[in-house]
Amino acid sequence: MENRTDKNSYTIIFAIVMVLVVGSVLAYAASSLKGKISENQRIEKQQNILYAFGINENDETSANFVAADKVAGEFSKYVTKQLVIQDGNVTEDDQAYLIDVKKEKSNAKDDESKRRLPLFVGDIDGKTMYVVPIYGKGLWDAIWGYVGMDENMVIQGAYFDHKGETPGLGANIKERYFMDDFIGEHLLDESGEFVGITVAKGNADPTNQRKTDNAVDALAGATITGDGVTAMIKSDLRLYAPYFKSLKNN
Amino acid sequence: MGLLSKKDSKLILDPLTDNNPVTIQVLGICSALAITAQLKASIVMAISVIAVLGVGNVVISLMRNIIPSKIRIIVQLVVVAALVIIVDQVLKAYSYELSKTLSVFVGLIITNCIIMGRFEAFALANGPWKSFLDGIGNAAGYGLILVIVGFFRELLGSGTLLGFKVLGDPIEKTGLYAIGYENNGFMLLSPMALIVLGIIIWIQRSRNKALIED
What we know:
The complex is a heterodimer. Chain A is an alpha+beta fold. Chain A has one domain (about 45-250). In chain A, about 35% of the residues lie in helices and about 20% in strands. Chain A is built from 6 helices and 8 strands; from the N terminus they run H-H-E-E-H-E-E-E-E-H-E-E-H-H. Chain A has helices at about 10-50, 70-80, 100-110, 175-180, 225-240, 240-250, and strands at about 80-85, 90, 115-125, 125-135, 140-150, 155-160, 200, 215. In chain A, the strands form 2 sheets. In chain A, strands 2-1-3-4-5-6 form a 6-stranded antiparallel β-sheet. A two-stranded parallel ribbon of chain A has the order 7-8. In chain A, helix 1 packs across helix 2. Chain B has one domain (about 20-205). Chain B is globular. Chain B is about 65% helix and about 0% strand. In chain B, helix 3 (about 40-60) crosses helix 5 (about 95-110) and helix 4 (about 70-95) runs antiparallel to helix 5. The interface of A and B includes residues 26, 44, 164, 169 and 221 of A.
């Protein structure tokens, strides 16, 4: 005896109904939650930028952001200017923190002059600091970060994050002991040329005493993620080197 | 147990021991290797799978008489994927921090063979309440193994548990490190998860000879 559910017509109708039901449920969930999600992402961007400025609620070992309800106030207090560099021209834009670095990167592929480079200038305890976003590829998926520097391109704060690096290995780029290693590192060599920072294995400086060697100690078992960090620092921060040069000349 | 009949409690307890999905049925090995380098990741994954498998089993069980047998695998996949996406979206909106911790697991939950295995082997043939218990039990059995493997890998590989330095500081040379102990970096790599898992299987089978197949 043939079962009702074995008929081809039933199967097709079932499939259509299922797709419609699941599709509309997911679409409804996505659209009704969209506002809240993008608000969360906006807050997170501000928290990341503040973190690179050194404004955070870190305790002994773990990295903690400024609380979500305070972030807007802190952001406007410390970040004095938001700049956009496009094709060598610097303009001010108070929405610069919303620029999607990934999108700008793909724009730059057709035409380098289309790329908008956001730069955040802040005043921390009387010292002027500059924070820029960076974006690159890890082992599995995207990695990104924010790097805070002084006018000599010496790193003052760094925040890294990732989409799907391996927990316990590559995912540790967002741990304090990795990010804090960057503080004080020089991005320029002695002659003032941009060289970046290499995440290096066996660089004979595991406790990171030498700050001018343009290298920090790598994470065990996370070679490709570390190489990704090196690559995004070198490729993205290099774009800002002309701006910092022009700061000196003025 | 007052709340559950003997048969029902067997549904929950069996997968924890003599019918464990990982060590006996050898399902879900892939994620057990991938995410057990840290205890915290193991726990988060265990809880996520318990939630998804518990609910998913009930949904499949409720639909079991109307699912066309020709496309049942596709239907099962759609149910898991939809559940996981909805949970992910809700977390992103209301618990952003947690959703960031979970991000890497979302894809892994969908592809976890234990989930498809339980849908296929149990929920399609049993009522919702039984399916729910079976789902919780199997996911807990899976989670138990994950936590054990994660415990040893984090302890021996990084010298920490849930991020706390339980063995002392390897750079400052305190605690065990003062007398020359070193972390075994190899424990952090996936092959060691398989070896730890092998040891668990060995212990389990040597204690219960009935589990040994010819």
